[in-house]
């Protein structure tokens, strides 16, 4: 999760200066492609293996009973660099094309006497393209993002090497990007595009279980920790300070996790009510 968060944000244009009006020629339809094409393909280099990757690789080989003669078991000539194709950039290119058409339709509707042909279809396609882009965004935190064709995976690396053979040139070089994980090899089990149905089900179940377990642990800690403080030190200031601090931190966590204001307010108020009751009991007994 944190490795995915370090990924650079997708930028829409490789152009360095958009302030000059001469940069984009809006009278030529090809400006849309020029605006996005630098982000379609990036070049990556093979990362060095850490001690953790080497240890995990040895354990996997022993478990599967496979002994490889080389470190990567790839074709002759070890591949030290590969590519990443961003399929989501194609969707942004499509959105920009539809947006340009709609802008022209609106201008024609405002200043021309007749209705432009196809404006309703372009508007419907634009809305659907936005929905598709939202769907793509839902997969960004998955370990195997299906909207990235990356050389980090063996099958896709071979496919990219075949497609990119003889295509690079010095006039229009590719940008370099950083590999986010260790590269898989021919002996590793390939991951299906989008995953299998049973695999996705169990992965989602375990992810939900980990989240529920984490929430249970945090909730228990927020109830047990102030209870120990108030019992061990039965003073009014200890009870008030601990209650204030724990309620403030709990409210901050609820603001981070929950989306609706009513849910944040009700959860924080319920937790504060529990601590206030416990403060009354401990101070009275003290």
TrEMBL record:
Q: Which residues form a coiled coil?
A: none
Ranges for the DUF6594 domain? 92-276
Q: Which organism is it from?
A: Thermothielavioides terrestris (strain ATCC 38088 / NRRL 8126) (Thielavia terrestris)
Q: Where are the transmembrane segments?
A: 213-231, 237-257, 264-283
What lineage, starting at the top, does this entry show? Answer: Eukaryota, Fungi, Dikarya, Ascomycota, Pezizomycotina
Q: Which UniProt keywords are present, listed alphabetically?
A: Membrane, Transmembrane, Transmembrane helix
Query: Which named protein is this?
Result: DUF6594 domain-containing protein
């Amino acid at each position: 999760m944190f490795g995915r968060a370090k990924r650079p944000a997708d930028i829409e244009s490789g152009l360095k200066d958009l302030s000059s009006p001469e940069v984009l020629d809006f009278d030529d339809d090809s400006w849309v492609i020029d605006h996005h094409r630098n982000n379609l393909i990036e070049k990556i280099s093979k990362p060095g293996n850490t001690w953790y990757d080497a240890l995990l690789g040895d354990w996997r080989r022993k478990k599967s009973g496979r002994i490889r003669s080389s470190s990567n078991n790839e074709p002759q000539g070890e591949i030290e660099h590969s590519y990443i194709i961003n399929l989501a950039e194609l969707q942004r290119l499509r959105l920009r094309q539809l947006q340009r058409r709609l802008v022209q339709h609106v201008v024609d509707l405002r200043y021309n006497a007749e209705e432009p042909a196809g404006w309703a279809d372009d508007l419907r396609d634009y809305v659907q393209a936005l929905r598709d882009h939202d769907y793509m965004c839902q997969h960004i935190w998955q370990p195997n993002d299906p909207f990235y064709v990356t050389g980090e995976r063996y099958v896709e690396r071979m496919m990219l090497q075949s497609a990119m053979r003889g295509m690079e040139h010095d006039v229009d070089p590719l940008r370099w990007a950083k590999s986010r994980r260790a590269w898989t090899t021919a002996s590793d089990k390939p991951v299906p595009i989008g995953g299998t149905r049973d695999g996705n089900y169990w992965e989602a179940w375990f992810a939900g279980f980990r989240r529920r377990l984490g929430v249970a642990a945090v909730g228990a800690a927020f109830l047990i920790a102030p209870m120990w403080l108030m019992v061990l030190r039965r003073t009014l200031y200890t009870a008030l300070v601990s209650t204030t601090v724990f309620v403030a931190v709990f409210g901050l966590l609820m603001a981070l996790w929950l989306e609706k204001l009513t849910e944040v307010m009700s959860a924080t108020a319920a937790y504060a009510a529990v601590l206030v009751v416990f403060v009354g009991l401990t101070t009275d007994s003290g």
